[in-house]
Amino acid sequence: MKTGKISESILKRSVFRQIHLKRDDVLFKAGVGTDCAVVTTKEDEQIVLSSDPVIWETDADARRVVFAVCNDLAAAGAEAVGLILTALLPAGTEEKQIRDMVRLITRQCEPAGIQILGGHTEVTAAVNRPVISVTGVGKGKEDLLVRPGNAKPQDDILVTKWIGLEGTSRIARAKMEELSARYPRYMMEEAAGFDRYLSVQPEALLAAKLGVHAMHDISEGGIFGALWELAECSGIGLEIEQKKIPVRQETIEICNYYGLNPYQLVSGGSMLMAAQDGNALVHELAKQNIPAAVIGKATEGNDRILLNEEEKRFLEPPKTDEVHWLDYSNGLLE
Fold first, then answer.
1. What is the rounded CA–CA span in Å between residue 162 and residue 24?
2. How many CB atoms lie within 10 A of CB 19?
3. Which of these, 187, 165, 151, lies nearest to 270 by C-alpha position?
4. DSSP β-bridge partners for residue 322
5. I want to staple 268 with a disulfide (CB 3.0 to 4.6 A). Which of 120, 166, 229, 256 is the partner?
6. Do 186 and 245 meet the contact criterion of CB atoms below 8 Å apart?
7. What is the residue-wise DSSP string for 240-274?
8. Which residues 6+ apart lie within 8 Å of 324 measured at CB?
9. With 80 as the cut, is the pLDDT of residue 267 above it?
10. 188-215, pLDDT tens digit by residue?
11. CA 328, CA 50: separation in Å to the nearest integer?
C-alpha cells in the first residue's frame, strides 16, 4: 500500500468488519469520520485511562496490545471498557496484514468484554516494524479505585503468579529451535505458552474489592523495577526476601542460557500488591486458582533492601529491561 492514511474501503472491510463486540455503555462506535468515543458511567463511577506502545513482532503480540494497558487499568481497580488503537505500519504493508492484526486483537478483546473504540491506521516510512499505540479506557466504582502510591509502612508485599512470564514467552517463541536443542522441547513449548497468563485483571479486581492498598503491574524493568517504583511512589522503604519471589524453572533456564537477570525481565502477567494482611489476600486469591506469595514488608524510611540468604543489598532505580536490551542491541528477537 502507498504511504499515508489507509483508504476508507480498506478501513471498512479490513478494520471495522473485524470489530464485533458492541457494549451498551459505549455510545459512539468506531467508524469512518468518528474521531471520539463516548462512554457512559453511573454517578459513582470514574473513567480511568492508560496508554502504551507495542512493537508488533509476531501474531502473539496481539495479547500484548490488549493487556499492556488493560493490566494498568486493573492495577487501579478499574474494568477495561475499550481500546483506542493508533497503528503506524511500515511501507510495503499489505491489506491482509492489517486485517489479520485487527482480527487477532479483537480475538483477545471480545472474551474480556473489551470493545475497540476507534483509532487511526497509517502506512509510513517513519517505522520499519508495526508500532501500535494503545489507549485503554476503563471505569471503576469510586470507592474501589486503588490509588497509586498508597502502600503503607508495615504492609505485606506480595506478587501474583510468577515473574518473567512475558519475557520468557517472547524469548521462547523467538528462539524455539535453538532452545530446544539445549532443553526438552515440551519445556520450551510450555515457556512459549506463558503469554496465556498475561491478564492480571482477575486478581486485581478481586484485590480491589478486598481493600488492597496499592497495586503495580510488573512490566518493563521486571520485579526489581516494579518494587522500586511502588516504593518511590508511596514514599516507603522495603525489605524483600529474594528467594520468596515466585519464578518458574523455565524462566530460570532461559535466563541462564542467555545470561539474563530474571528479576529484571519484563513480567507482564504478574501483579505487585501491598496489603495490610497479605496472607489473607493470598488465601482469597487461591480460592480463584490464582497463585500468589508474600515476598516482604513495606517499612518506614527510604531504604529498599533486598535479602538473599546472608547477603543484603539495596535496590536501585529501574534499568533497561532485559528483553528490550536484547531487542535492539543483541538481535535476539529479530
1. 35
2. 20
3. 165
4. none
5. 166
6. no
7. EEGGGS-B-HHHHHHHHHHT--GGGS--TT-EEEE
8. 220, 266
9. yes
10. 999 999 999 999 999 999 999 999 999 9
11. 25
Q: How far apart are CA 116 and CA 83, in angstroms?
A: 5
Q: What is the distance between the alpha carbons of residues 299 and 280, in angstroms, rounded to a whole number?
A: 20
Q: Judge residue 13's burial from the number of C-beta atoms within 10 Å of its C-beta, 0-12 exposed, 13-18 middle, 19 or more buried.
A: middle
Give the distance from CA 159 to its chain's centroid: 14
Write down the residue that cell numbers 494497558 correspond to.
69
Strand partners, 160: 292
Give the three cell numbers for residue 183.
532443553
| pTM given for the model | 0.84
State which amino acid sits at residue 247: V
Please give the distance of CA 318 from its chain centroid, rounded to a whole number. Answer: 17
Q: Coil, strand or helix: which one is 130?
A: coil
**What pLDDT does 22 receive?**
81
Could you tell me the three cell numbers for 272?
505487585
Whether 324 and 220 have beta carbons less than 8 Å apart is answered as yes
Local structure of residue 103 (DSSP, 8 states): H
pLDDT, one tens digit per residue, over 312-334 is 999 988 776 666 545 534 445 44
Q: Give CA–CA dist 31/47, Å, rounded.
A: 22
Backbone angles phi, psi at 125, to 5 degrees: -75, -5
Enter the C-alpha cell of residue 178.
Answer: 535453538
Report the alpha-carbon distance of residue 170 to residue 228 in Å, rounded.
24
Provide CB contacts within 8 A for 310, sequence distance 6+: none
